[in-house]
Specification:
about 625 residues, mainly alpha, two-stranded antiparallel sheet, 21 helices
């Protein structure tokens, strides 16, 4: 879009940054910044950063409506999301970071890379273009696409079908260019790439995984050929055969905790190399796991075997087990750490002011120093531990642990809390993983009637996810041995892993689609693919184990206006930028959207827009 393009050229030219890997050092001449100065290999890390951030921000925000996490406040933005009361404030960031931070550089990057014969950069650009625009149609349904990166101020909207088809075509182009040999003078991909560190084979495998990921979303379109945008099981399996075959093929961003001098320039002014999920959730208080999440990780499918990942997903608090401690809590072997309970969103517990935010000090019921709730009616809410974590680089603290009410970590050691695996400052960014490939394969094979093949892929996906988590846990403890005291960081024992795989996930004989999809949901936490899967299967409680519409929704008239009874959360309303600056085109596309209220002044601003299916989530041709 022209208005965003004019912004990004100034941004790109001003970013003469230096970080651990010079990720965003996009300017050859910081004293005379123009868009011409940013070469293709300098634009790529800039594009990668903003694309990754857009996806992860969207993943966190969509996850808040899926039942794994909640907040103690029902009126806060994300506390409201977890009862399906939606608001438009959070829908802007992913849009802005994609268009303003990434997409507006793509055409210039493709043009300059083509002129240089840098075909791997051209391929990377087409892959990222597809990835970003597919995110836009996943979230909003319709979006400017064919004219989005043109010079017009008011690009026309395209249907979800047009965007979906275009993204698949761009993936094919990506694979074509990535498979070519670069010209001799072209800059190697490794110079600008921090997604896969220049490994072209990983980029090709990632493209094939994305293609499988997107083709499986066509499950409501009826059987047929993928080229006709129909559900094509054989085409999906063919893509998976060319995708990841082990964790060695994964594309993982190794986020860092060094508070680099390179910061984003879209208004947040935060380091470019730390985990985006830390920015939106990990550094913030009073996000809690739900009973749904705890039940799935501690007693999957009622098998009575705890998942070894549970200790690393469910937060812990430094505490001391005594004879007065509530029964049923999980304690570390030395009795010094206490694991959180889950907030039961199938009840109205939050309407009672729970979980009450914990305090630290001498007002404990037993008269000692520790965690307490400064409420006469909610004293027992110390059983809930929020997921905030610390940081050495960003906050200047002592470790990744957080000390209560002291972000620099110089407080009382007895007040430490652990955070959770995915939202720490240096948590890895999983772009394309073997475990996702396994779960897609398991789903497709199961639906084809190949139970044995499905179970093999299902089990392999769980193992791959556990092993991938263990890689980072091992690294964290190696970097800071003080973390080895906390169960949240201790790597999983092989005996526990094997016991879980043998006794905790079921067998070939009792395999269900619900087990496959729930384990995929557990493995892909804070991914937009969680929401995509739940929409594909219409939030089926037989397919997503322990999931239910939150009880508060049935008491919330605003939520029921936005998502009428019998409906589900299906899309985001469009962001304010489109409503303010491109409203005519936004209104016009409504005529092609089944369920759009064209009698309203703006169909996309109607209260129930959140419940309208996006194109791939429908049987619309």
């Amino acid at each position: 879009m022209k208005f965003t393009k004019s912004i990004i050229l100034g941004i790109a030219a001003s970013m003469a940054m230096a970080s651990c890997d010079d990720w965003l050092d996009v300017n050859t001449n910081p004293n005379t910044p123009t868009d011409v100065d940013a070469a293709y290999f300098q634009r790529l890390p800039h594009i990668e950063f903003y694309t990754n951030s857009a996806y992860m921000f969207a993943g966190m925000r969509t996850n808040m409506g899926l039942g794994d996490w909640t907040m103690n406040s029902r009126t806060s933005t994300y506390g409201a999301y977890s009862q399906w009361e939606m608001s438009t404030g959070p829908v802007t960031t992913a849009y802005q970071w994609w268009f303003v931070g990434a997409a507006c550089n793509l055409n210039d990057m493709i043009e300059s890379a083509t002129a240089a014969g840098a075909w791997h950069y051209v391929g990377a650009a087409y892959l990222i273009k597809a990835y970003g625009f597919m995110l836009m149609t996943d979230l909003y349904g319709e979006m400017p696409y064919t004219e989005a990166l043109s010079t017009t101020n008011t690009p026309k909207y395209d249907t979800g079908k047009t965007i979906f088809k275009g993204c698949l075509e761009d993936l094919d182009l990506a694979i074509e260019y990535l498979s070519k040999s670069q010209d001799g003078q072209a800059v190697p991909l490794a110079t600008g790439d921090y997604y896969a560190m220049g490994d072209v084979n990983k980029w090709i495998k990632m493209a094939n995984l994305f293609k499988a990921r997107w083709l499986v979303k066509l499950s409501k379109k009826g059987a047929g050929s993928a080229s006709d945008l129909k559900y094509d099981a054989d085409a999906i399996l063919a893509c998976l055969a060319k995708a990841q075959t082990s964790n060695a093929d994964n594309v993982v961003i190794d986020h860092l905790d060094n508070n680099s001098s390179s910061h984003d320039v879209l208004g947040w002014d935060e380091p470019v190399d730390y985990c985006p999920l830390y920015s939106v959730i990990g550094m913030n208080s009073n996000y809690f796991v739900t009973k749904m999440l705890v039940d799935n990780f501690t007693n999957f499918a009622g098998n009575g075997v705890e998942d070894p990942r549970a200790n690393h997903i469910i937060p812990w608090a430094r505490s001391m087990e005594t004879v007065n401690s509530p029964a049923g809590l999980k304690w570390s072997a030395d009795g010094k750490w206490r694991r959180s309970e889950g907030v039961d969103m199938n009840t109205l517990i939050r309407t009672e002011g729970a979980p009450y935010a914990t305090s630290w000090g001498d007002k404990t019921p037993w008269g000692g120093t520790g965690f307490y709730c400064d409420s006469e009616t909610r004293k027992g809410d110390t059983i809930y531990v929020h997921q905030r974590s610390g940081s050495k680089g960003y906050y200047g603290g002592r470790s990744l642990l957080m000390w209560h009410d002291n972000k620099k970590g110089i407080g009382d050691d007895r007040s430490a809390i652990s955070g959770t695996f995915h939202t720490r400052v240096s948590s890895p960014g999983w772009l394309a993983t073997y475990h996702e490939a396994c779960f897609i394969k398991a789903e497709v094979l199961f639906n084809k009637g190949d139970r044995n093949g499905a179970f093999e892929a299902y089990k392999e996906g769980i193992r791959a996810n556990i092993d991938l988590m263990n890689e980072k846990l091992t690294a964290w403890v190696a970097e800071d041995n003080s973390l080895a005291d906390c169960p949240s960081f201790v790597p999983m024992e092989q005996a526990d892993i094997e016991n879980y795989l043998a006794n905790g996930i079921g067998t070939v004989a009792d395999l269900t689609l619900g087990k496959i999809m729930t384990q995929k949901h557990m493995a892909m936490m804070f991914s937009v693919e969680q929401w995509n899967d739940m929409r594909r299967y219409d939030y089926d409680e037989e397919i997503f184990l322990n999931w239910h519409i939150p009880a508060e929704y049935y008491k919330n008239t605003t939520a029921q206006t936005q998502i009428p009874l019998g409906k589900h959360l299906r899309r985001w309303a469009q962001c304010s930028h489109e409503n303010n600056y491109n409203s005519d085109n936004l209104k016009a596309i409504g005529a092609e959207v089944p369920g759009a209220d064209m009698s309203a002044p703006n169909w996309n601003a109607a209260a129930n827009v959140w419940s309208i299916n996006v194109w791939w989530d429908s049987d619309q041709e």
